[in-house]
Write a structure and sequence with these properties.
By secondary structure, this protein is an alpha/beta fold. It has 12 helices and 14 strands. Helices cover 37% and strands 16% of the residues.
Length: 329
């Protein structure tokens, strides 16, 4: 029988549980840097049985859509500050990945370039920028990168046949639509020791996408969808809409696959991991409500997150719980 709190392998990483903390927004920055509250939050996460930490979004480019609510890879203090943050996780033997991506494509002096208008110099610039960012992430002590290729980030549009109508080698077939990303992953794997995780949306050719990403060197996948987290919960049959397809993907590849959200109680998660090929489950909002709740699960004092999924932390773009703050006033 598998259990949430199993010690297990995650490709090249060792995890202390099957629960992945996924980051989203960052609202506690000070002059663009990391505040004491951020370091405290990561310390509480690492000390309380999380298996793997994925940071809040680290934006590739300034003046991006969510720049006010994300970290910046171009911050001159990035390596110094995040080196301390990763050391906090590593002191508790918890691996940590840097979530890296962007929404607005502003490269080579051009603004808001759409996928179909990317010129070859733009594609090469984006790839080069990711490689430079990966070097900074490595210097900062991260165990890996999670490429933000899902939800509505720019790389999700590169992969999407509804968005990508290119007629060259970077459009058309699934392989061509992934070519820019596959080329990038090959270079990252050849030049760094970083674990490469890909966060991807469910779409028609998802199984082929997953297999291509594995073939080129991706170490893990996280399955998500374009819509906001408030719609991640149930379908018309009262079932998480990502369960079945995540199970199919897990059967189709030989790398770890993470179910992206939707569960928040011990019983349901343990039933899922023992009835499917899904071994890892991610959460975001329960950790915003209480970064230490897994310790209560482990000692049996609680068996379900008390987060009521109001989604204010999502809509208001914060890394703090508004319900708790209102109660404290």
């Amino acid at each position: 029988m598998k259990d949430i709190f199993d010690e297990c392998n995650f490709r090249d990483l060792k995890l202390n549980s099957r629960i992945v903390r996924t980051g989203l927004w960052e609202s506690q920055k000070e002059m663009g840097g990391l505040s004491p509250e951020i370091f405290l939050r990561y310390e509480r996460l690492a000390k309380n049985h999380v298996g793997l930490i994925v940071t809040e979004l680290i934006s590739m480019y300034p003046h991006d859509r969510f720049s006010d609510y994300s970290h910046s890879i171009n911050n001159p203090k990035f390596i110094k500050e995040f080196k301390y943050l990763t050391s906090i996780a590593h002191q508790q033997n918890v691996p940590i990945l840097a979530q890296l991506g962007f929404v607005n494509c502003n490269v080579n002096g051009k603004q808001n370039i759409v996928v179909n208008d990317l010129e070859m110099e733009d594609i090469r610039q984006i790839q080069s920028d990711f490689i430079v960012a990966a070097k900074k992430i490595s210097f900062a002590g991260f165990d890996g990168i999670q490429l933000a290729m899902g939800n509505n980030y720019f790389l999700s549009k590169v992969m999407d046949s509804k968005e990508n109508k290119r007629k060259d080698d970077y459009g058309g077939s699934t392989l061509n639509r992934l070519r820019m990303i596959l080329e990038l992953i090959k270079v990252l794997k050849a030049n760094t020791d970083l674990h490469i995780s890909c966060r991807i949306n469910v779409q028609e050719d998802i199984l082929e996408i997953a297999q291509l990403l594995e073939k080129v060197g991706s170490d893990s996948l996280q399955i998500t969808k374009p819509s906001s987290p408030q719609y991640f919960r149930k379908d018309s049959d009262n079932k998480n809409i990502l369960f079945d397809i995540t199970d199919e993907i897990s059967k189709a590849v030989d790398i770890p696959v993470i179910l992206g959200g939707g569960l928040s109680d011990m019983k349901s998660i343990n039933e899922l991991i023992n009835s499917t090929d899904i071994d890892f489950v991610s959460m975001q909002r329960p950790f915003v409500y209480n970064p230490t709740f897994l310790s209560q699960w482990k000692d049996g004092t609680e068996v379900e997150s008390l987060c009521n999924t109001c989604n204010n932390c999502y809509w208001k773009k914060t890394s703090t719980c508004h319900i708790i703050h209102e109660d404290e006033e």
